[in-house]
Amino acid sequence: MRRTRTRLPGRLLATAVTVGAVLGLVSGPTPLPTASAATTDTTDPTATVFYYTKTKNWTRYNLHYAPDGGAWTPVPGVAMEAACTDWVKKTVSLGGATGLQATFNNGSGTWDNNSGRNYALGTGAITVKDGVIAHSDPCAGTEDPGSGDGNKATVYFSTRTLGWTTANLHYQPAGGAWTAVPGVGMRAACTGWWKKDVDLGTATSMKAAFNNGNGVWDNNKGADYTLPTGVTTVADNKVTANAADPCAEQTPDTQAPTAPTRVSTQADGVSVVLTWEPSTDDRGVTAYQVTRTGGTKGDTVTTVGSTVLSDAGLEERTTYTYTVRALDAAGNVSPASAAVQATTGTKPPTPTAGSPLGTDPRKDPIYFVLTARFNDGDTSNNRGGSQHVKSGNAANNDPMFRGDFKGLINKLDYIKGLGFSAVWVTPVVLNRSDYDYHGYHGYDFYQVDPRLESAGASYQDLINAAHAKGMKIYQDVVYNHSSRWGAKGLFTPTVYGVRDAQWSWYYDERQPGFEYDGLTVDPKSGKSYYNGDLWSTAEPSGNTCVNWGQPTGAKSPEGYTIYNCQWPSPTSGMFPKALYHHCWIGNWEGEDSRSCWLHEDLADFDTENAQVQNYLIGAYNKYIDMGVDGFRVDTAVHIPRTTWNRRFLPAIQERVAQQHGIEAARNFFVFGEVAAFVNDKWNRGSVNHSAQFYTWKERGEYSADDERAALEMYEYEQQQGTGNQPTSTNAFLEGNAYHTPDHSRFSGMNVIDMRMHMNFGDASNAFHNGRDSDDSHNDATYNVVYVDSHDYGPNKSGERYTGGTDAWAENMSLMWTFRGIPTLYYGSEIEFQKGAKIDCGPTCPLATTGRAYYGDHLAGEVRSSDFSEVDSATGTVATTLARPLAQHVQRLNQIRRAVPALQTGQYSTDGISGDMAFKRRYTNGSTDSFALVTVSGGATFTGVPNGTYRDAVTGDTRTVTDGRLTVAAPGKGNLRVYVLNGPGQIGTPGPYLK
């Protein structure tokens, strides 16, 4: 975002073919088969539920459950029995159900109910440990392996860099059969190590892979591990045979973490947000345990991995008391924090949380909106901010916060009528700066900005409304930075201020009990952009800003005295070094691009700090829980790949899988902005700053410390250079054949196709440059492709694309048929604001920029019962839908949706003459879709399968008997899509597709 100033699939059977893995951890695409467990019924499915006891230390444990679709057991449930050290278990029959809802309690009114959501469990052996669910038997292997006569193997597996809370060993003795997925549970041996003893029988070695019980695997880069008899360690893809016991020299961890401090609460309706300062521990804090007392439903104990807990669904007008304890990996528990209280208010009308649609994201063309500038559904939440007059917006009656979720909900049928099935919305979190309508100045990451919400049109309402229409919501998220005023709940700076004759106009009088939310107007100042909480004349406790409050000798433009520490900056010492970086970027392709501030409005997080990581993970878990379908990641290049691969991407996968299932996690679409504004395949030769680099897992072994690992990885990959980076054939056909892609080295992050974007001044350039880069992406069929955006036009232009309607049509025809996911910035369907400067901050009115208000073009009513199908439209919106590019994109979406090869197919240009010409194929089960495409110009296709081809644009039918098909040039912006055994013409001819 440009700113302006102010897998390894689950092994089905021993004989199943392993879909390769090349590096580390991938989510299996299929649900894990049931692990073996004790049963009470040979016909009905059962679940053996294991519950971790060490951190709770209750005297009794009860399982209160309901089979899916069935009734709950009477409170307190059924007693659990001792299983093995630190575990209790209970095996229950599920009747015809395939899972169960569960909570746990001590029989005396204290509950663990997964923060009010209950635990959703499956069948087989299931563990619940400190809030994390996994498929495993933690007591397996407790038997003495020496009791058999076979060869013995003792396997130690390290999870120190993985963050797993459970480990399973999935193995195959040489010449034998694989264990059932997910394998057998390993036991915690010492900090960071898991152990399993195996009787190999007559075999002298075994094949092995490891997983966390939730579909995340370490399978030795797809080759599996070969482990001999004796003691073997596996750490960071390295096997050491005849190894020493890695736990032998570790002294037992008996030291508990320190008690959490500065615990605070904030009540909002019937929800409470609890925050605290992190504890310290000699070997590291792994989680926090929050105990809540009060209300009529009993006490609860909730385990979280961050320093924030959002406690929802409480009783109205009730006082609750909270204490927090810290946990370490050995299960040591700190003393309780000081108790704090919070009193709830009344329950607001809240929509039910949704679930992501969970389908292949390549099927969904994306419509990108700046929410605050798209369509205004509620004028009461419009806000102009401190720059309303200066910017010229006031003169246009055009407040920066004008569009909202209600306006977007009201026009979802417009977007659906154009044929789009995914909507990318700008960041939704509460922002704080002088000009923050775009959403990239996050202040409270745990709160949706009230300037976007209305009664009956909350963010949850938008998600639910989109899903009801079969449309996805992709949320823009920021991990790299907060606003200049910090991040509420993590750190917010206090600046020096004095309400004297010079500055009283600027510093609002502090209002006890008044809290900034961007919407509510301070009754004394009359401002919604109240700043009374940001300044202090007295030096605050713990201040680290140098020369607090002393005159700098400089004057403001008005002639007012400027003081030290009067404004947040990275070099003043105002921000804690542990949480924020303290420098400005000097080299955008240098290492400092990840460790310095981009701009004064963007306080740069130290994302390698665990407290920062926990804060962000906890915040974005909230939106995952609400059911968003994916994240567009802002400024992804300014965070090291190691941090993405170790922390943020696995956390996203784990949360989606936990809340919505493994299939939803597999299709949760994460695409990063790795801004590389050059025409090179690799960004000025720097692999660390190139978009495709972020689609790959790590291939080196780095320090367990994230800060050191980031530097080690940066240096290692720079030395490897562009000529020694991994390559992939995932986007390419093999001849005319589709092949199963290998995503085992996939990081979990897809990217915006910056190279095509940079070259879209001419469609042919975009096509050839994109094709040239595709072998360096893990799978370019997932690339997000657009011409221009809220930041730049092609070739780093600061203006919205103005190449002409024919050129726009040609660009669209290419985007909708070539590999990748076509994406359109709002209004481009009518060449909205073409040639206008995209962004000039508050120095000019928004109405004159590429971020102008679009709602005037949407006035009236529109109804769409299906994608690309407008049932009715009245008023201005009918005129908008009749524009040539709107009709063009509408039909392109029809054609793309009807031809699977254009959505998920691989491609090739082999045997093809013609400029923008290619063949695509997708094969899966009974689906076999093969298409020959040419854009604007003619083409000859040779060596293609014989058969009957029908053009999706004209319906023209050709019979190929010699593997050759020649297509005449259809004209600029037009195209031909000859589909083998295809349906013929799709849609009706329009201004370009004819």
What's the helix and strand layout?
Layout: E1 46-52, E2 62-67, E3 78-79, E4 81-84, E5 87-93, E6 100-105, E7 110-112, E8 119-121, E9 124-129, E10 132-135, E11 151-158, E12 168-173, E13 184-185, E14 187-190, E15 193-201, E16 205-211, E17 217-218, E18 225-228, E19 230-235, E20 238-240, E21 261-268, E22 271-277, E23 285-293, E24 299-304, E25 308-311, E26 319-328, E27 340-343, E28 366-369, H1 371-374, H2 405-410, H3 412-418, E29 422-425, E30 429-431, E31 442-448, H4 459-468, E32 472-478, E33 481-483, E34 495-496, E35 535-536, E36 551-555, E37 561-563, E38 602-604, H5 610-626, E39 630-634, H6 641-660, H7 662-666, E40 669-672, H8 706-720, E41 750-751, H9 754-758, H10 763-773, E42 784-785, H11 805-817, E43 821-825, E44 862-863, E45 872-873, H12 876-881, H13 884-898, H14 900-904, E46 906-908, E47 912-913, E48 917-924, E49 927-935, E50 939-942, E51 947-951, E52 957-960, E53 964-967, E54 975-980
Parallel strand pairs: 1-9, 7-24, 11-19, 28-29, 28-43, 29-32, 32-39, 34-35, 39-40, 40-41, 42-43
Antiparallel strand pairs: 1-5, 2-3, 2-6, 4-5, 6-7, 6-8, 9-10, 11-15, 12-13, 12-16, 14-15, 16-17, 16-18, 19-20, 21-22, 22-25, 23-24, 23-26, 26-27, 30-31, 33-38, 36-37, 44-45, 46-48, 47-50, 48-49, 49-54, 50-53, 51-52, 51-54
Helix pairs in contact: 5-6, 11-13
